UniProtKB/TrEMBL annotation:
Keywords: Oxidoreductase. The keyword Oxidoreductase applies. InterPro entries: Ald_DH/histidinol_DH, Ald_DH_N, Aldehyde_DH_dom, Aldehyde_DH_Superfamily, ALDH_KGSADH. This is Aldehyde dehydrogenase (NADP(+)). Residues 9-370 form the Aldehyde dehydrogenase domain. GO terms for molecular function: oxidoreductase activity, acting on the aldehyde or oxo group of donors, NAD or NADP as acceptor. It comes from the Bacteria. The lineage of its organism: Bacteria, Bacillati, Actinomycetota, Actinomycetes, Micrococcales. Residues 487-507 are annotated as: Disordered. It comes from Leucobacter denitrificans.
């Protein structure tokens, strides 16, 4: 793939980012942290105005968007603390060892450096948390990389307003010009992704578009890493004892998780495996009451969801439990009520091709499983990668001492191989912004199954390791110096240790 000539406008954008890269990477951790906090403060100050724009453009509720702004600001502040702490640099020092068991060992020190300019493609369903200043953007800036954001077409006015907040924060703290920039249009985003000065990309959206962008990044003369969150159906397994113990509570939590934000969440529970003949369908019906309709994000998403819903309802053996539906207004906007259906395991297997694809909206499928079914085998039979997998257990089962404990452990092991986060007695929607969070999973959940887009490990996507051998102290990064002026955690291998490796495990 040859590098394409950019338009003058896009050339200026990429040139500014490339020029800013060394200066921004050279900022001290405290200086970079101040930018992240300034971004968070700016979001807080502009929240009322930003939320009103977001409500108009996306149809999401004021409460949801207020919470999303708060989450975005918290993540920026968390990353500020992480940058100063320095543990994300994974600094390692192996002191020179003339008596090393394989021959004299040189002084080797390893840490991480920023990749360079990165383009982030915004998401439609999280106009704050995965958009202009969302998780990917925060991680890119925390890593020390200049950021170019491709705004989502579903909320262009909000993107511009948020970008204004970001540019003011950059100006306020004196960060280099070109540290943050915003562009509009898919063609512009693709053209920038192809430019050799761009060193990585990130994306949250559909499998089709995500795969297209991933392939573009891989096909460049110099391939670059691309971190895409692409799709997930988030299977749930509920035991008979859990249903007997708290069917009403489970049903209520399930409906809240499926209907929240009109089901337009990558972590929505799309498939729920329950024992055949259980009381859960009846409990779900009882808990449903009169479910309110909710506007979907835009006409394209609404039509796509309506088509998927029709396909599912037309599949042999599928029975509506909660009918739901989609109403289109004069502007083409779709207003959805939740749909929940049931299907036997045999019919699910027979109609697998039409059922297993993600339905991006308020719809979920209860799969009724006969007694004696090997639950662990269902994961590799039906699914590739997913963001989450959930188990609902009874109080006794949670202690791990019941007769079915081996079966449940096998199910947990199967889930661990195919999802990024395994939940117990909860619901996958509502991703906690914490250091240990994992928001990723095997393909097609994400394009890189070792990465996360939430939590402090998200920063490491936009760094690469470099080792320094026998480097004079004056030429070492501060994180690798013996005096450790940054105070970062250092993993140190002293001289003379290698002769004792493995001895404590010998017979």
């Amino acid at each position: 793939m040859a590098t394409e000539t950019l338009s003058p406008e896009l050339e200026a954008v990429v040139a500014r980012a490339a020029a800013a890269a060394p200066a921004y990477a050279a900022l001290t951790p405290v200086e970079r942290a101040r930018l992240l906090v300034a971004l968070a403060d700016g979001l807080d100050a502009a929240k009322a105005d930003l939320v009103q724009i977001g409500m108009r453009e996306t149809g999401l509720t004021e409460a949801r968007l207020n919470g999303e702004v708060n989450r975005t600001a918290v993540q920026l502040r968390l990353f500020a603390e992480t940058v100063v702490d320095g543990s994300y640099l994974d600094a390692r020092i192996d002191y020179a060892d003339p008596n090393f068991v394989l021959g004299p060992r040189p002084d080797i020190r390893r840490s991480h450096i920023p990749l360079g300019p990165v383009i982030n493609f915004s998401a439609s369903n999280f106009p704050f948390a995965f958009s202009v200043l969302g998780g990917d953007s925060a991680a890119i800036l925390a890593a020390g990389c200049p950021l170019i954001v491709k705004a989502h077409s579903g909320h262009p006015e909000l993107s511009d307003a948020t970008a204004a907040v970001a540019l003011e924060a950059v100006r306020k703290v004196g960060a280099p010009e070109g540290t943050f920039q915003l562009v509009h249009g898919r063609e512009a985003g693709v053209a920038i992704l192809k430019d050799e000065r761009i060193k990585a990309g990130s994306f949250t959206g559909s499998i089709g578009v995500g795969r297209l962008l991933t392939d573009i990044a891989a096909a460049r003369p110099t391939p670059i890493p691309f971190f895409g969150e692409l799709g997930s159906v988030n299977p749930v397994f509920i035991t008979a004892d859990a249903i007997a113990e708290r069917a009403g509570e489970i049903a209520s939590g399930f409906l809240t998780s499926v209907s929240g934000s009109a089901g337009q969440l990558c972590t929505k529970p799309g498939f729920v495996f329950i024992p055949e003949g259980s009381a859960l369908p009846e409990a779900v019906t009882a808990a449903a009451g009169e479910l309110a309709e909710h506007r979907l994000l835009d006409p394209r998403i609404a039509q796509s969801f309506n088509d998927r819903r029709d396909t599912i309802l037309e599949t042999a053996g599928v029975t509506p439990l909660i009918e739901g539906g989609v109403r289109f207004d004069d502007d083409g906007q779709g207003w959805a009520k939740p749909t929940v259906v049931t299907v036997s395991l045999d019919d699910f297997r027979a109609g697998h091709e039409g059922l297993v694809e993600e339905a991006f909206g308020p719809l979920s499928i209860l799969v009724e499983v006969p007694a004696g079914t090997d639950l662990a085998a269902l994961m590799p039979e039906f699914y590739e990668g997913n963001l989450t997998g959930t188990l609902h257990l009874s109080t006794a089962e949670a202690e791990g001492t019941t007769e079915n404990a081996p079966e449940l452990r096998a199910l947990v092991a199967a889930l661990s191989k195919q999802v990024g986060r395994v939940l117990f007695n909860g619901w996958s929607t509502g991703v906690a912004v914490t250091p240990a969070q994992q928001h990723g999973g095997p393909y097609p959940a994400t394009s890189n199954d070792s990465s996360t887009s939430v939590g402090t490990a998200a920063i490491q996507r936009f760094l690469r390791p470099v080792a320094f051998q026998n480097a004079p102290a004056a030429f070492l990064p501060e994180a690798l110096r013996d005096d450790n002026p940054l105070g970062v955690p250092q993993s140190i291998a002293q001289a003379g240790e290698s002769g004792d490796w493995g001895k404590r495990f010998g017979a």
